[in-house]
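If you are new to this repository, start here. Below is one unmodified record pulled from the training split, so you can see the exact layout before writing a loader.
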Amino acid sequence: MELLNLSPDRVAALLAAPAVQSLVARADARRAEVHALHPLSAEAQDRVLRKFRLDWTYHSNAIEGNALTYGETTALLLEGAVAQGKPMKDHEDIKGHHHAVDLLLGMVRQDEELRLHDVRNLHQLLLGKPFQVSARTPDGHPTQKWIYPGEYKDTPNHVRTATGEMHYYASPEETPALMTALFDWLSASRDAMPAPVRSALFHHAFVSIHPFGDGNGRMTRLLSNLLLMQAGYPPVVVRQQDRTAYYGALRQADAGEMTPLIGFLGEGLIRSLDIQLQGAQGDFSFEQDDLDKEIALLKQSFNQSEWGTESLNSISLGRALKELLINILNSLALGSQNLDSLFYESEWRIRLKQYPDKAKLIASSHDPSQLVQELEAYEDYWLKPELEADSYPDNFTFYLSRYWNNFRSTKQSFSFEWPITIVFDRLTFRISTSRPDLTVTKLYNQRLTSTEAKELTLSFARGALDEIKAKTNRV
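And here is the target side for that same chain:
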């Protein structure tokens, strides 16, 4: 056990250190204050547990480089919302950690002693399916390696530090024996020392082995917290902003000085006990800070293109309609020019729906750019100063159509009009075609993408062609 810094003499020296004894005394005193207020109401327990779970899952993953913000983590766990533009692996890691905490809480309720097979099961639950990660060969070349959750590493996972030095963990060959020795010590030490010290010693020993190909940091924090919770303490949340201090304490432990790591984790434990004490006393002021932070981060988690900044009013309607026409008219003109060759004349028209069965023509032109200019002359209809935001109509419906006049066949001549429908609702506007049906919905601060314009154009032209074929009995 010398390799793991867990020899009896070493542990005895640590327990006798004044700094360690003072820390344990402070933690025990705070825990006694919490227990004196038991039993807690179910509501208080739920609110404190929710606080710990969200913080624990977010920070433990963020330390390892997970890109999801606190708000995105909260939205994913509470609402199932996926953050756009973030790696799906990051979402899976968050959900895996959440399920792993569920498993730990079950073990705490049943007071089950931690076994090696539990560690493998937990690792599999945490990481899910096999996946590949970037790695380096022994001679320093980049490569890829497979991670198989629940299985010990089969290749070395040493790392190069920021100073350029190599930090060595246990080799794949040493790992099974070291893990067995660590869990033998864990079983023998259950009642032999204060839980905060036992948890911190285990924390460093597990990190030193680094038994898996990936996920060792998260596993370390999960398992060391299980030891605390089984002893009646709350979990320690190693915060992302404390990452440098955390790694510094681990480096000192690597050099044989365990007191800084015990102190770092011990202060985190006291911070968690303070939150528990607030909850036990009915003071949930920490929740308001968290709520404000969650709301702000949740809004930030949406891309600007996904977050509505305007509702229907005269300004948004006029601008959105003109921008939409500019974006789509050229595409429609290009996509339907071959249809134009089937008729003698054609023009673009815009109608405004005024009644269920009536639409007023407000602009028409052969030239798409001229159509937009004609529309501007009609803005007085919706730019009415007496229409305040709260009294503005709930929606406007426009029909943008292509009118084809005089089919060129000498045997069968006809004219017809084929529309795209544009509806401006209170918060969004949508563009629709029929036969085949296609609808694109946008926020007022969004623009129609080139892909969407092409899809609408194809649907528009296809529907018009089908109508022509039907009228000429060429179906």
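Two things worth knowing about this chain: The mean pLDDT is 81. The chain has 16 helices and ten strands.
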